[in-house]
Specification:
Length: 94
């Protein structure tokens, strides 16, 4: 966050409020904020006060913008249907 920006009270969010704003699960918020969590290099920025954790909305937005975009999946062509007559039949057991 820039030092010229002023932080408003409504910009400080609990994990529950952040999950609701981002429309993700609460466990996603906790996982991304852990130092050794599953994220792409930098954890979700948070403010830790003892056992409490809070998030600065402008910092979260900046973090989201810095994330690399996920690779787009190539569209797969539909499979050709197999011809049932083309399957070789096994010889009978003697």
């Amino acid at each position: 966050m820039n030092s010229t920006d002023t932080l408003k009270a409504e910009d400080i969010l609990t994990p529950e409020e952040l999950a609701e704003r981002l429309k993700v699960g609460l466990c996603w918020v906790y996982e991304k904020s852990r130092a050794r969590g599953k994220h792409n290099g930098t954890p979700l920025p948070c403010l830790r006060m003892g056992r409490y954790i809070r998030f600065s909305w402008p910092d979260v937005i900046e973090w989201l913008r810095s994330m690399p975009s996920p690779p787009t999946r190539a569209r797969r062509r539909p499979r050709k249907k197999r011809d049932s007559t083309a399957v070789a039949k096994k010889p009978p057991l003697v």
